[in-house]
Amino acid sequence: MADQLSRVFAALADPTRRDMVARLTEADHTVNDLAAPYDVSLQAVSKHLKVLEDAGLVSRTREAQRRPVHLEAEVFDLMTKWIERYRRQAEERFARLDAVLARMQDDDSTAPTATTQQQEGTAS
Amino acid sequence: MADQLSRVFAALADPTRRDMVARLTEADHTVNDLAAPYDVSLQAVSKHLKVLEDAGLVSRTREAQRRPVHLEAEVFDLMTKWIERYRRQAEERFARLDAVLARMQDDDSTAPTATTQQQEGTAS
DNA sequence: CCACTGTTCAACCAGTTGGTTGACAACTGG
DNA sequence: CCAGTTGTCAACCAACTGGTTGAACAGTGG
After folding, report:
1. Closest alpha carbon within chain B to A33
2. Which of A34, B65, B71, B124 has a C-alpha 20 to 30 A away from that of B25?
3. Residue A33: which of A69, A60, A72, A73 has the closest Cα?
4. How far is the C-alpha of A96 from the C-alpha of A92, rounded, in Å?
5. How far is A58 from chain B (nearest CA, A)?
6. d(CA A37, CA A20)
7. Where is the composition biased (Polar residues) (chains A, B) (predicted)?
């Protein structure tokens, strides 16, 4: 099956599932309960829940005939970590780039072939 | 097409695309350049890039025959906002729940059959 | 100008997704 | 125990995905 991070992103790529997650932050819900607002069959909702469960975003227990669905919010951290890591990296890079540009402006005697990495030096 | 948030999540649900994004935080890259590490055709990579572009995660300009790919890191905020909003909401709810449980423990005169209506709170 | 490099478009294919309906399983509670 | 409520499983379908190959387009540079 794909790694968990992929499953989490994929699970949240569907608006209906995102809405379910949003509602589950307020309170646990039964399947019927969850299904009510959407114009799809109960089975479809059950499938959505399976996707969320496989991603580790929700868990289900039993309580009488009902299967209360509970949000496992810790999984959010998985995404947050990934996103923040690369966001930070991108920001640092932009900072570096700004510095380079500033330096170039500063003393424009710099050779244009100045060992900048890939595209970076493309100050056309 | 779907809304942008869905497209962004869907785009990042693929490990190859996540890796491309990761590499693009370091520097811009051409398509060939990007494709090098992966064992798929150039056309497949081109498709992945289209997905990332449709999600607003990257932009492409022209430079001679090359099409340098550039990361648009701001889009990360879209996800971060969504995630953080609901994470916070979930945390607040858990805090509330803890409070309720603490209170119940405090004066255990509470009827044990205390109508667990929805699942918990009723404190909406 | 024309060959070459870099990239995309088009058609196709297998596998997945999100939905459907119908049957059935699990559990309560009268 | 049996009827009723709640939810899942199975089979099916259309649409989408991620990959392929072959052809075409864009732009440079000899």
Report:
1. B118
2. B65
3. A69
4. 6
5. 12
6. 10
7. 110-124
In angstroms, the CA A1 to CA A95 distance is 38
Strand partners, B29: B69
Which nucleotide lies nearest residue B38, CA to C1'?
Answer: D19
Q: What is the spatial distance between Cα A110 and Cα B23, in angstroms, rounded to a whole number?
A: 27
- 3-state SS class at A29: strand
Q: Which nucleotide is nearest to A17 (CA to C1')?
A: C18
Reported pTM: 0.84
Span B4-14, mean pLDDT? 98
For the cut 80, the answer to whether the pLDDT of residue A17 exceeds it is: yes
Residue whose Cα is closest to the C1' of D18:
B44
With beta carbons less than 8 A apart as the criterion, state whether B82 and A15 touch.
Answer: no
Domain boundaries of chain A, sorted by first residue? 4-73, 74-107
Is the pLDDT higher at A70 or at A102?
A: A70
